[in-house]
Design brief:
The complex is a heterodimer of chains A (170) and B (263).
Chain A (H helix, E strand, L loop, with lengths): L1 H18 L13 H12 L2 H19 L3 H8 L2 H10 L6 H26 L6 H29 L15
Chain B lengths: L1 H13 L3 H33 L1 H39 L10 E12 L2 E6 L12 E4 L4 E8 L4 E5 L6 E6 L5 E6 L5 E4 L10 E4 L11 E9 L8 E6 L8 E5 L5 H7 L1
Antiparallel strand pairs in B: 1-2, 1-12, 2-5, 3-4, 3-12, 4-5, 6-7, 6-9, 7-8, 8-11, 9-10, 10-11
The chains are: A mainly alpha (170), B alpha+beta (263).
Chain lengths: 170, 263
């Protein structure tokens, strides 16, 4: 039952990314609802859920947007390794900061890899726009969205989980 | 995960995923329509509220343009009547000028930097093939079909940065290439002529991928000096793509690349 609900939520996130997020652009960036959903699953359901759900999300998003599912999979892949690396680092970070940094880094990487994918297929390589109209506004959008959703969930008392597999359960 | 990515990349290239993608699009269409129905009015309201002054200016400009066009239509109507009379007198039969097309609704738009693609609710079962030209309901060039499934097709808009269209200035016939920019705008490149703000840019038909004389947009900005070999020209599409709901796929025009494939 839980797996079915997770699958349905990820499918809905992929469809929302192509239908809803496109309606709210800021500069050249769009809110990354797919990343936000993955991050919330990682933070509250555990990393195992994300490891199973990420391919499903990548395939759904690829099918809905006619992009390469492989590229989308690679775009969101760094989320867990970055969060895990941050948690095991010597710098003391709370859960919110850990997920925020991991989310921002993954968001920037995802936008870069998808843009480079388009450039490789013949799009003009406008690096100024890439940096200042795509990645930078994207970072701000991701940070705002994550804070607007993550913090109220924590405030309601739902405990977050760590990004390491040892601390998680399916 | 990397192995899975490699498998997906290979499967995507070999077309292994295509039947599944068609099925996926059929199944998820009601959900996409539902999401669109809920959020599109919200986005439209926010967009309009944020650009009220701009809309008022546009409204004034459109009223003036409407008046001018109505006068032109009236003059053209009398010319058409006169031509018809002459054709009848000379026993000449002209073509109807109406191209066969399929109307389709936009299901969703995937627009981000470097990418501007829409999906439509008609596909190969309606005679649509990859490479066909897509127009707005008023006849302005919107893009080309990149992939067609049974009941769906993906259309790359001219504002996508991978899009290139052979075009010319309507008045001077100076030709160049209209390209999509990273910000989902349009630029007119490689044109060597005296280009002015307000000039109309249409397809030139060169290359055989688009029929000639389809309106694309108007010149909004020309930068650089007369010493420059090519000046930087920005265009504004005649159609507001974000609010377009219906498109026409031109099925009567066979682009050069489709023609070659069918031989």
């Amino acid at each position: 039952m839980r797996a079915a609900l997770t699958g349905a939520a990820l499918l809905l996130a992929a469809l929302a990314q192509v239908t809803v997020a496109s309606l709210f652009p800021w500069q050249a960036a769009l809110p990354d609802l797919a990343l936000l959903t993955l991050l919330l699953f990682a933070a509250f359901a555990g990393p195992a859920t994300v490891m199973v759900g990420l391919p499903l999300l990548a395939i759904s998003l690829g099918f809905a947007s006619d992009r390469s599912p492989a590229l989308i999979l690679l775009a969101y892949l760094p989320l867990l390794p970055i969060a895990s690396g941050l948690e095991q680092s010597a710098v003391p970070l709370n859960r919110y900061t850990t997920w925020l940094i991991a989310g921002l880094a993954t968001g920037a990487w995802a936008r870069l890899i998808l843009a480079f994918g388009a450039i490789a297929q013949g799009a003009s390589a406008d690096l100024g726009s890439l940096a200042f109209r795509l990645v930078l506004p994207g970072l701000i959008l991701d940070g705002l969205l994550l804070s607007m959703v993550y913090l109220p969930i924590r405030a309601f008392g739902w405990e977050g989980r760590g990004p390491s597999l040892q601390q998680a359960r399916w | 995960m990397v192995g899975l990515a490699l498998f997906l990349a290979v499967a995507g290239q070999t077309g292994l995923l295509q039947p599944f993608q068609g099925l996926f699009l059929d199944v998820t269409r009601p959900i996409e329509n539902g999401l669109n129905g809920i959020f599109r009015p919200v986005a439209s309201f926010l967009s309009d509220a944020g650009s009220l002054n701009e809309l008022q200016d546009e409204n004034r400009r459109l009223r003036l343009e409407n008046e001018r066009l109505q006068n032109e239509v009236s003059a053209l109507q009398s010319d058409a009547d006169r031509v018809k009379e002459l054709e009848e007198a000379l026993k000449v039969q002209s073509g109807s000028g109406i191209e066969a097309s399929v109307a389709a609704s936009i299901v969703h738009r995937d627009s981000s930097a470097f990418t501007d693609v829409v999906s439509i609710d008609r596909g190969s079962s309606s005679g649509i093939k990859a490479g066909m030209v897509v127009l707005s309901s008023q006849g302005t060039l919107l893009g080309t079909v990149t992939r067609a499934f049974d009941n769906h097709a993906f259309v790359r808009l001219i504002t996508d940065s991978q899009s290139k269209v052979a075009a010319e200035i309507k008045e001077s016939h100076a030709d160049g290439i209209v390209r999509g920019t990273a910000n989902r705008g349009l630029s007119f490149e490689l044109a060597q002529a005296d280009i002015k703000v307000g000039d109309l840019v249409v397809t030139s038909g060169l290359g055989g991928n688009y029929p000639p004389d389809i309106p694309i947009g108007r010149v909004t900005k020309v930068s650089g000096t007369s010493q420059d070999l090519f000046r930087k020209v920005e265009l504004e599409s005649l159609v507001r793509v974000s609010t377009a709901r219906t498109v026409l796929v031109l099925t009567s025009f066979v682009p050069q690349r489709l023609d070659l494939e069918s031989r």
